[in-house]
Amino acid sequence: MLVVREVGVVGDIVLAMHMSDGLVNAPTAAVFGLVAVIGLAVAVSRARADLDDRTAPMAGLVTAFVFAVQMINFPILPGASGHLLGGALVAILVGPWVGSLCIAIVLAVQALLFADGGLTALGANIVNMALIGVFAGYTVAIALRPLARRGRGGLVATAFVAALVNTVVAALAFVIEYAIGGAGGASLGTVFTLMLGLHVLIGIGEGVITAATVGAVASVRPDLIHLLRGSTTPLQIRGPATAEGNPS
Amino acid sequence: MGAGHSHPLYLAGASPVHRLPSEVKIVAAFLGVVCVVATPREAFPVFGGYLLLLAVIWTLAGIPPTWMARRSLIEAPFVVLAVLLPFTGGDPHIPVPGLSWSGLTLSEPGLLGAWNILVKGTLGVLTSLTLAATTPLRDLLLGLQRLHAPGLVVTIATLMLRYIDVIAAEARRMRLARISRGHDPRFLWQATATARGVGSLFVRSYERGERVHLAMLSRGWAGEMPRLSDAVTTHRHWCIGLAPVAVAAALVVTGWSTT
Question: What is the CATH number of the domain that holds A208?
Fold first, then answer.
């Protein structure tokens, strides 16, 4: 969801997606809180299978990375900047289970320590961004995986589409929650158009930056990218032999 | 890292609110916000009651109201939606007082919806701020542990909060390095260098994670964090902590019975 806040002395406008209290009524918030708890329980057990005994430190550091990334401002236009939400990024880099766990912990810490996002809306926020958003992005990435394996261009394009879909679907999940238990007086059509229009724009920004980031990781450590696992091409050694040794 | 791990919203103090066990405060803040959200939006005076309740807690905790006001302004949540609602909502429409000559009308359900989002959102932010201002990081994690959050989640959150300063400082150094080399992006398509920095930040975080894991293993880590404190939470703590919640519950009942 859109939050406009003034940051620092520059007065840049930063776009974020945290729902506040009172946007959906109490029963709806409770239902989505329950969904979030169940989803997280599944994510915890699957993340353990993904990372074995390294789970805690690796996921801890990746979560710290997500938190730090959300503090980095990207320019959109002069005077306006945004930050990455990172759902599709972590889904592609560390897989959907560890990824959704990381995003959920970031959301919980932001709600408890930084008053960012309402306490009662935490469940709905986790469902939107950590569960639905991450998995929507991951599904798209899996569907486009043959393209991503073909080369750098394909991978970058996949990351862009995954991040765009992630953002838009997370926003649509909010519209559904608003339809179920919205506490405001706007017609659903208005909310739908507003959210869709805004988040297609935000999603394009998210997509561009996610694509560039995944491309940068791919050029340094392609083995770290979860999406490309099991598709490592054999090591190729190019160039002539040097005096120090024979590169064969 | 050496200085006590503190977060920017923490206001150091030794008041009764600060000394209350954090799990009590988390539960109290959560139930308090539940009460606010469950209040019917037409019960206008009741929301004043919530604000008064928070003000009493701030006095007890020694938090200046101006400190609160400044920080609650940082986050003006859902202002965009709230501002649009009176113009886009359904009938009946009412004329704007004092501007009736202009023919401008506002939707009554839209106005109520905007009020609902603004007042509940603001009270929610103020409650979260009160919790954050009186609870240091370590206590918060301990509280989550005692509330039986899954062990893995608490451990991940602990490590995340322990390393966030390191990773954020790394990001800051990368930014300084870019700026000192003349990087001044204005438009989205100029942000490639920043994105490349994010990419290497990920690689560095991941590799640091591998090193941290080895370091933890060599120090005898067996899958669980050591207990940080053996202070016990008594019934008395719960009674004190839940007293404001009782007041809030009374306010909800008042709200429902008067509308």
Answer: 1.10.1760.20
Confidence of residue B76 (pLDDT cuts 50, 70, 90): low
Q: Does B206 contact A224 at a Cβ distance shorter than 8 Å?
A: yes
Structure tokens of B90?
């359904």
Residue B37 lies in a domain: yes
pLDDT digits (tens, 9 = 90+) for B79-128: 666 676 777 666 677 777 666 666 677 777 778 878 888 888 888 888 98
Count of domains observed in chain B? 2
Query: Which ipTM value was assigned to this complex?
Result: 0.83
B214 membership: H or E segment, kind and range: helix B192-218
Instruction: Please report whether residue A12 resides in a domain.
Output: no
Mark whether B41 and B96 lie in a shared domain. Answer: yes
Nearest chain B residue to A192 by CA: give it: B81
Domain span at residue B181?
150-218
Q: What distance in Å separates the CA atoms of residue A186 and residue A209, rounded to the nearest whole number?
A: 33
Which pLDDT tens digit goes with each residue over B228-237? 667 778 888 8
Which residue of A109, A120, A186 is in closest CB contact with B37?
A120
The answer on B249 and B208 residing in a single domain is no
First to last CA, chain B: 53
Q: What φ, ψ does residue A76 adopt, rounded to 5°?
A: -115, -55
